[in-house]
Amino acid sequence: MDRYEGFREFVGARQQALMRSAFLLTGDAHLAEDLLQTVLTRVARHWRKLARDGNPEAYARRALINEHISWRRRRRPDIPTAHPPERGRDPGDDSLHRIALRQALARLTPRQRAVLVLRFYEDRTVEETADLLGCSSGTVKSQTHHALGRLRVLAPDLAHLLAPVETTP
């Protein structure tokens, strides 16, 4: 029996979704690729056990978050370049909102960023997020609250996107 039987199929089926999550965590396509490759290497090492006993996708997602947090703890200094980022876009353009949101997300703590990615991008429940992060539901709720508050401060021009959702009775 091939040690990696099923691994290639798993990667083929889930790679794009995992890559999107990695990009949202890192905010950089190249770092996201590195992060995903690091995690897929780890998944491959444990594939036989994961395929038999576990949930490989849950393991991979948790590994993405843990590895990202680990990388952020070993933060590398920004390297200045001769060319500043392009700023001359139409103010009404949604891409400006994406850029502002990405920059604001990058300034959150790794845990806060992970909570927001899981809760709002991946549309996970509080309980699923808590399980993936290995923390309590209360921690997820408080991290979400603090992260959204911090985003409101870091990117006030996006406040309309971060407004609390009103529910009708």
Question: Describe it for me?
Answer:
The structure is a single chain. The chain is mainly α and 169 residues long. The protein is 69% helix and 0% strand. It is built from 9 helices and no strands. The protein has helices at residues 7-26, 29-45, 47-53, 56-73, 94-106, 110-121, 126-133, 137-154, 159-162. The longest helix has 20 residues, at 7-26. Residues 87-92 and 165-169 have low confidence and may be disordered.
Key terms:
mainly alpha; 9 helices; globular; disordered C terminus
Number of strands: 0
Mean pLDDT: 80
Q: Per DSSP, what share of the residues sits in E-state strands of 2 or more residues?
A: under 5%
Q: How far is it from the N-terminal to the C-terminal residue, by CA?
A: 57 Å
> What are the secondary-structure elements, in order, as H or E?
HHHHHHHHH
Gist of the model:
The protein has 169 residues and is an all-alpha fold. The chain is built from nine helices and no strands.
Give the helices and strands, then pairings.
Elements: H1 7-26, H2 29-45, H3 47-53, H4 56-73, H5 94-106, H6 110-121, H7 126-133, H8 137-154, H9 159-162
Helix pairs in contact: 1-2, 1-4, 2-4, 6-8, 7-8
